[in-house]
């Protein structure tokens, strides 16, 4: 209760006493009836004021709660739970083809269509990276690169293997990838060394289609 204000219980008791006094005064108690009427009017004014203040306070609380309330997002509406295009791959196809992502161009492809580099530890405890035949049957953190000269050069230029394997990668590893890519392309009669890569916006899992390698004269 605020200091200087009469509680509703006290005000109600005063009105009840005023009514009893008015009834006891009869027709000749004009002064008593006047005082009783004044008490009732004061009680009615106080009741109206309290009702008004309560309504204002309730509206202010509701408005404040609306202003400070955070917008609630259902888990199913969050971006991380939305279906991912995955460059046109389905989950079943990813499992069936054992798909991996190229460290250079971020294209999703079957594991068999990519070069593999593996981070291994030697008997002396040193970390090194093996590729080609040395990586077959070896377990460890792996990184993959498309079997093209363009991707091998992009991986070397951007240190993509270093980021994917989280270790230092010798230039000899990139040179080995370039040699294998050149041998494959020469056998097929193609050369992608001068191709330009067009990368879509956003993360690779959100791409509807992978990036494109465009010939320089296109």
TrEMBL record:
<feature type="region of interest" description="Disordered">
    <location>
        <begin position="60"/>
        <end position="91"/>
    </location>
</feature>
<dbReference type="InterPro" id="IPR035931">
    <property type="entry name" value="YlxR-like_sf"/>
</dbReference>
<dbReference type="InterPro" id="IPR037465">
    <property type="entry name" value="YlxR"/>
</dbReference>
<dbReference type="Pfam" id="PF04296">
    <property type="entry name" value="YlxR"/>
</dbReference>
<feature type="domain" description="YlxR">
    <location>
        <begin position="100"/>
        <end position="178"/>
    </location>
</feature>
<dbReference type="InterPro" id="IPR007393">
    <property type="entry name" value="YlxR_dom"/>
</dbReference>
<protein>
    <recommendedName>
        <fullName>YlxR domain-containing protein</fullName>
    </recommendedName>
</protein>
